[in-house]
Amino acid sequence: MSYTSWRGTVGLIKPTHRPGSLEEFIRLLPEGIGVLPTYVGFKRGDADEFRGALAAYEERVQELATHGVDLIHPEGAPPFMVHGFKREAEITREWEKKYGLPIVTASQTQVEALHALKVKKFVGVTYFTGSINDMFAAYFREAGFTVEAMEGIPVAFEDVGRLSSQEVYAHTKKAVLKHPGTEAIYMLGSGWRTLDIIHVLEEDLQIPVIHPVPTRVWAVQKRLHVNQPVKGFGRLLEAMP
Fold first, then answer.
1. What is the C-alpha separation between 150 and 57, in angstroms, rounded?
2. pLDDT tens-digit profile of 93-144?
3. Number of C-beta neighbours around residue 231 at 10 A
4. How far is CA 42 from CA 48, 131, 158, in A?
5. pTM beyond 0.90
6. Paired residues of 122 in beta bridges
7. Which of 185, 206, 202, 199 is nearest to 230 (CA)?
8. CA-based angle 81:128:234, to the nearest 5?
């Protein structure tokens, strides 16, 4: 074991080659947790491409299992959400049995985070538009939540990283204010660079934000038996429930 991974190593399966979320994830991780990334390489970002990606994900799972990681984390919630909450759980159980390692997807960590924060109903925001947002909402309803909205912002899949966090803030605030009494904000996808608005949204709207990057950091810590709070990126990482 190398010195830099004395607290454990997580193998990541990144959905795209876009920069941003990997760097953010590593910066928020406690010292001593190693990261070994692999990539699937989505291009279109549509439901058909997501549905057809399981074989590619399993190839990366198999690859990571040979490198002695302690945990495998397939990123990209949509490729698993399109199969539904229950089927996703079956897939990860099958892979865990086959490869002998714990596996948790991005969407599974998000469900866990919502439960940890005792959220029952929420408003979701995404960088997708159209019927695919209905699939995302259906996933969370199957998991037992009330989804009051799943509102997309129109942007080309390859241009998501160009959205300013201020644009996303405005989109999110507008969506939340349509639903007084909602208990949380769910931000789908880590393609947009929005870590800087998590704390602002929580202060302004007085509800927690479930953002995939801090949620990933929280879930990895829990599975590696590490408990190091991080301030400034939302209640989940600050409180470590």
1. 26
2. 999 999 999 999 999 999 999 999 999 999 999 999 999 999 999 999 999 9
3. 8
4. 11, 19, 10
5. yes
6. 147
7. 199
8. 75
